[in-house]
Amino acid sequence: MSQFKSEFLNIMVERGFYNQCTNESAFDDYLYECEKSGKPAVGYLGSDPTGDSLHVGHIVPLMMMRWFQKCGHKPLTLVGGATARIGDPSGKDKLRPFLDEDTLKHNIEGLKKSFSKFLKFGNSANDAVMVDNWDWFKDINYLAFLRDIGTYYSVNRMLTMDSVKSRLDREQPMSFLEFNYMLLQGYDFCELYQKYGCRAQIAGSDQWGNITSGTELGRRKYDVELFGFTSPIITDSNGKKMGKSEGNAVWINEDKLPSYDYYQYFRNIGDAEVGKCLRIYTDLPIDEIRRLEALRDQEINEAKKILAFEATKICRGEEEAKAAQETAIATFEKGLAGGDLPCLEKVSVEGLSMLDAFVELGFIASKGEGRRLVKQAGLKINDKVISDENYKFSSADLIDGQIKLSQGKKKHGLIKIA
RNA sequence: GGAGGGGUGGCAGAGCGGUCAAAUGCAACGGACUGUAAAUCCGUCGACUUCGGUCUACGAAAGUUCAAAUCUUUCCCCCUCCA
Fold this sequence. Notes:
With 418 residues, the chain is of the alpha/beta class. Helix content is 45%, strand content 13%. The model has no long low-confidence stretch (mean pLDDT 89).
């Protein structure tokens, strides 16, 4: 009844992770053999440290790797210390600014943290391993590289690759530096094959060109079939990429985004996305997901709560997920002030300007914006709309030693007496 | 090296001496309707403000002018074509 022999591929299809594979049946055979023999298949996921945390948009391949590991296989997570110094031209119009050494180092630490939330690292057979391509690129000799690797690449072929072609079609400049990116990523794949016996690369579909660069190099240089496997780009109902909230990225790392906000991102997902998101962002069994996504109208909110909780649990841990959920329930369903809301601590609130407090909480960028919101009835104190833009707090506003501040319907925060 | 085109708000993109805090679109934000959804409608969208205004902004600096995003000069950056 299942489409594939291997557990991994079946899960990928069932949960909507499968977009494209370099050789579906051979990959299936390979995985199946590994699953049967108990000897893990090795696959890798690469990410360039151009930022200090991954965000929700990166979760898709991360979850693929998570399932890969759950099926008994070994994930390698590659941080592109070297490739980040080049810049992946895929989907870009411009050369990226160069990052200095300190930033790269900082970013690599951030990525490791992000990876470790989704994968188990360690020394067992199928534990994940972190690698950095800087290790093998830093001492490489240019001439040796050209002779060893360059001979296998045809410029004619490279020019047909989407990442290059689209740039040329749009008459955007592409530097020779960026043009080399796919060679590096191809080399990575082969290096991991040599070192770890890695035969698979898993990534988003925008990486297809870079992946086939690796599989082709593997075939030509080592006479081995390497596999590439990609996910579709996950978009919301408006066709926009997932992962932005209020124009800001939804970060994986907790130092970049509070768990409550992470939870709220999933809680506020559109109805049409619930099923898709449950499959992709949670570990819930597929039967349970089918039941939840069938819910309609009011009831689908239950599914969204489960989605938000489960997604937060994977990324931030069960404790954080619970706290976020409790805060959300208290705030939205009971109209109380939940404990996990953003909070200002004050010795006294007497005479404190309301606008200053909102600015300090980060809800508004300026007092001017606050004044506008007051005119539009967008600011509330203890759930009462404030119409005086110069409102000053007094101890009469305190309820149980705190004041609840709200901006719009969704942003809530507290002032507490320290 | 030569010739030409260009750098404007989060992005795209008008404006080309005053009426410009800068059209329009997208994004974003608030309100209404709902379900913390979508769609729709209305409104807002540089900062400060005692709501009269004040200040800072159209790559950077200098200049012309009563007045400059708009003209001049120099510089920086980007693109196209030629060598």
